[in-house]
Every structure is written in structure tokens, then in C-alpha cells.
Amino acid sequence: MLRDAVRALAEAKIAPHAAAVDEEARFPQEALEALVANDLHAVHVPEEYGGAGADALATVIVIEEVARVCASSSLIPAVNKLGSLPVILSGSEELKKKYMTPLAKGDAMFSYCLSEPDAGSDAAGMKTKAVRDGDHWVLNGVKRWITNAGVSEYYTVMAVTDPAKRSKGISAFVVEKSDEGVSFGAPEKKLGIKGSPTREVYLDNVRIPADRMIGEEGTGFATAMRTLDHTRITIAAQALGIAQGALDYAKGYVQERKQFGKPIADFQGIQFMLADMAMKIEAARQLTYAAAAKSERGDGDLTFQGAAAKCFASDVAMEVTTDAVQLLGGYGYTRDYPVERMMRDAKITQIYEGTNQVQRIVMARNLP
Fold first, then answer.
1. pTM of this prediction?
2. pLDDT tens digits for 229-255?
3. φ and ψ at residue 159, rounded to 5 degrees
4. Closest by alpha carbon to 180, among 216, 211, 205, 197?
5. pLDDT digits 0-9 by tens, 93-103
6. Phi-psi bin for 327: left (phi > 0), alpha (psi -120 to 50), beta?
7. Sequence-ordered alpha helix ranges (H) in the chain
8. Which residues are marked as active site?
């Protein structure tokens, strides 16, 4: 029922704007309004804060179905979870009430600030600092590759509070867009997901109350990594949706396109491509859903399973979208058809929330 409802909404309210959102590289406001109106913008927020209280699998299905028609729009529920999960996992009850309630209502979005110009895969090498000053912390630094920056009201920011301790000297904070000293760089000009703004976040003597620290001092990096164990699965879901959208479109196309007097779907070479695409998508789906169940239960092998789902599903998405372009021939290469957009959008799923090379390192260190 959930899948049917989200698919119907995505087809009616999000799909019609997907090409224009990509072409104009603009935020998918129509998608945000449709998702908020149907309480699908942040389904993971617990019921006690006014949220839908969806489990990890339901959240995955929402993201998958939105990504099937528009990858940029699927980053609304995905990044709202990424940005707010540190607060849910480690924040005080007061912090949860203060920030989860407006998120659940749709009054605010939440972004996640971990990466920096010199700290990507080596996130523990970050330079952003937070210095205690009485009842406040003062933050200075630059965060890079921040999804939905400038649109989101709230930001989970990781900053160094004790430089001598490396990863154990990093703490997490909630920073608000309206805090004095917060500003944003120009939107990045990207290959895909053009409807989701990616910008630098500048913190210039940003003074915030001490009670906006998430968890204890020095626990920020551990919270960041725990968050990624859960949210990598949302990237697997996004990749899965993109791949399914590409297969669905290609399948329809080959049944209508005629060459040599018959639909090209009748040719075995085409059938084998479609069979391989469908098989790989289904394998990715099973891995992703199983990882979502582990996320919900907090299983001990979640780190391995989350990395495996993200890595496998994103590699499948890249392969399937490339094959979809091939199946459409010359048309696949034009912007009049959606599969080239899906191919461009799929690429980022192999890179963000930890490159697939890093996922393999994570898997190797956590072999079951």
C-alpha cells in the first residue's frame, strides 16, 4: 500500500517536473510541497515528535519510489534523515523536541555537514573547529559538498573540539541557517542530481548555545559513523529507484520501437540485456531491504550490510542506466528522453556517503 501510494504521488506530482528541474538546475519545489502535503518528506521522524514514525524499510521504499521518477527529489526524504539522524541517535530529549518537531511538520529541512575541502574519505582529518566560550561554542571552518545547503534550515555540523585526539576530539552540533556567521558558496555545477543544490557552508565565528551539542563532547565522529551505517541504505534505495526507472522506461521503449519489421523487444540480444538488468536490480533490492531490516533492529553486522547494499546497488544503477541508454540508441543520448538523466544521476550514488572504494574498505574490516 505504501509503495502504491508513493508511486501514484510521484507519477502525478513529481515526474512531470523532473526534466525541467534537471534542465534548469533548480530545487524541486513542487516535489517538496507534494511530499510535505502527504507527510512523506521525513517519514523517519518518530511519532512522539509529530512524525510518521516509519521504520527503515518504509523509509527505503519512499526514497526508492521517488527516485524512480526524479533522483533530485528523492534527496529530500533521504537527506532529512541523514541530517537529523545524529540528533535522533545521540541528542538530548530537549534537542530532539526542538528540531524534530518542525522537521516533521515540514517547516524545515535538515542537512549533514561532514566533508571539507581537505577531508573527504579521510573525514577524521577535518579542520573546522569549535571553541568553548562560557555557555556557548564558537565555530569556524568550511564544509564542502553539502546537499540541500541553503534550502535546509538546520545543519548537523562536525567540528574539532580537541585537536590532540583526532577522531575522538570531534564533536557534533546543530547549526541553524539563521545563526550569525553562517553563509553559503555558489551552487556546484554538477553532472547529475542538478535539482538538489550542493554548496559549501561557511562558518565564520558562529556562536551557538552549548546545549546545541549533540551528545557528549568528543563523541561526534562516532555519531557520524553510526549515522552513515543507517543512511548508506537510503543511498542504496535511491540507486535502486533510479535503476528501476531506467529499466521501466527502456522496457516500454523496446516494445514500441520497430526494426527489421518487428519490435526490437523480440530480438534475443535485447531480451538478454533486459533480463540481466532486471536480475541485478532484484538482487540489489533484496540486499537493500535486508540491510534496512538490520538497520531497524540495530544488528551487529549492520556496518557490513549497509556498505554492501550501497556499493552493490549503486554499481547496479550505473550499469543499468548505461544499458538503458544503449537500448534507446541515439534517442537515449538525447535530453528528450529521461534515461540519459538517470545515467547522470546514477553516477553520484557511487561517490557520496562514502565512495564505493571506501565501502569496500568498510566491508573488508567488517567481514561477517
1. 0.98
2. 999 999 999 999 999 999 999 999 999
3. -145, 150
4. 205
5. 999 999 999 99
6. alpha
7. 2-9, 15-24, 29-37, 56-67, 71-90, 93-105, 220-256, 268-297, 302-327, 339-348, 356-365
8. 353
